[in-house]
Amino acid sequence: MASGYPANSFGRLGVACSQTITEEPFSPETSSLAGNFDTTESINSFHLPGELGDGNTVGKSKSKSGYGYNRAELGSLLAAEDDKLPPELDEDLDGVDTSLLNVPSKCAQQAEEFVKKVWAAGWNVAHHHTLPDWLKDNDFLLRGHRVPTNSFIACFKSIFRIHTETGNIWTHLLGMIAFLGIAAYFLTRPSIEIQWQEKAVFSAFFMGAILCLGFSWVFHTVYCHSERVGRFFNKLDYCGIALLTIGSFVPWLYYSFYCRLEPKVTYLALIFFLGTIAIVVSMWDKFAQPQYRPLRAGVFVALGLSGVIPAMHYVITDGFWHAINYAALGWLVLMALLYIVGAVIYAVRIPERIFPGKFDIWFQSHQIFHVFVLAAAFVHYHGISEIANYRLTLGDCIARGEVE
């Protein structure tokens, strides 16, 4: 027969539910329901828990081992405990010792308490005021913060826990997976369906989106590792935003100025230059500090608004109606609005600024910003797909006499 766990593993009564009763001699360290019996005999005795009786005043039974309490003594000592049963269990059942009906319910209660303690011990969250300064990014999120772990394993395990960064992690993790799937499908189409030039142009957008979303969810995952690790991945997060902006402009400029080489090259060079500046600024250590939140939002909003210059160029040369219907200008404007609104929400920290402590886990400003970024990326993908289809149906630039 397998022996039981020590009494302090799951509580005295808890052991009886999951372990076979042993035949070892009685000792004070054994579990409260452990008895001595032969497999051919009925259970004759139990050791009474100290809470239910005084073991010093009740005599020992004359069971096989000579230890424990006999059934008559146990029944009399537990009579008072029967009154404490819930009403639905306080009924006499024919042929059943009702004093034993306490065991299953107490087993379930103690098992539940044990699981709760294990869960609480496995992951701890803290109040904002207990965090080190480098983890205090948002003063309006009060509870549910992760504490420094100094462990990448613990950080990645936190992906499946509930805390202030859970929504930030999953919004961009799922978005990255979605764009990986879209990119894989697009780039594996046969050449007769999608030519290599289109694959190369769209790859700039896919690369920017995947890197941006990837850097973002990894940063929010390992942010609590240590100050050094958190700062490094925070810089990568900002670089990812700049890369997404650059990658988004490449296909739109390529197809909008499809047959006009000079403006196309000029605007591509401009967006690469401005994007590089944004990346350099992002690598500045002070750029990631909370007081520079408006500056961060402003840098990336300005980078996105630089697209107004080529858009106005197209409207002047080809007309507003043509720009809306054939250059996907409407989709481009919608994308810009989504980015700008998301950045503003991120900068002013709404709604948690209005209701501190009410949006600690869900629907905080950073999560809303992430959703706006995802929406803008999908809108832009649809827009550049529309303009690419239009341009490719027009035929060769030389044949149409559109080369500049």
UniProtKB/TrEMBL annotation:
<feature type="binding site">
    <location>
        <position position="370"/>
    </location>
    <ligand>
        <name>Zn(2+)</name>
    </ligand>
</feature>
<feature type="binding site">
    <location>
        <position position="366"/>
    </location>
    <ligand>
        <name>Zn(2+)</name>
    </ligand>
</feature>
<keyword id="KW-0479">Metal-binding</keyword>
<comment type="similarity">
    <text>Belongs to the ADIPOR family.</text>
</comment>
<feature type="transmembrane region" description="Helical">
    <location>
        <begin position="236"/>
        <end position="255"/>
    </location>
</feature>
<keyword id="KW-0472">Membrane</keyword>
<feature type="transmembrane region" description="Helical">
    <location>
        <begin position="368"/>
        <end position="384"/>
    </location>
</feature>
<feature type="transmembrane region" description="Helical">
    <location>
        <begin position="267"/>
        <end position="285"/>
    </location>
</feature>
<feature type="transmembrane region" description="Helical">
    <location>
        <begin position="328"/>
        <end position="348"/>
    </location>
</feature>
<dbReference type="GO" id="GO:0033211">
    <property type="term" value="P:adiponectin-activated signaling pathway"/>
</dbReference>
<dbReference type="InterPro" id="IPR004254">
    <property type="entry name" value="AdipoR/HlyIII-related"/>
</dbReference>
<feature type="transmembrane region" description="Helical">
    <location>
        <begin position="200"/>
        <end position="224"/>
    </location>
</feature>
<feature type="binding site">
    <location>
        <position position="220"/>
    </location>
    <ligand>
        <name>Zn(2+)</name>
    </ligand>
</feature>
<dbReference type="GO" id="GO:0038023">
    <property type="term" value="F:signaling receptor activity"/>
</dbReference>
<protein>
    <recommendedName>
        <fullName>Adiponectin receptor protein</fullName>
    </recommendedName>
</protein>
<feature type="transmembrane region" description="Helical">
    <location>
        <begin position="169"/>
        <end position="188"/>
    </location>
</feature>
<dbReference type="GO" id="GO:0005886">
    <property type="term" value="C:plasma membrane"/>
</dbReference>
<dbReference type="Pfam" id="PF03006">
    <property type="entry name" value="HlyIII"/>
</dbReference>
<keyword id="KW-1133">Transmembrane helix</keyword>
<keyword id="KW-0862">Zinc</keyword>
<feature type="transmembrane region" description="Helical">
    <location>
        <begin position="297"/>
        <end position="316"/>
    </location>
</feature>
<keyword id="KW-0812">Transmembrane</keyword>
<dbReference type="GO" id="GO:0046872">
    <property type="term" value="F:metal ion binding"/>
</dbReference>
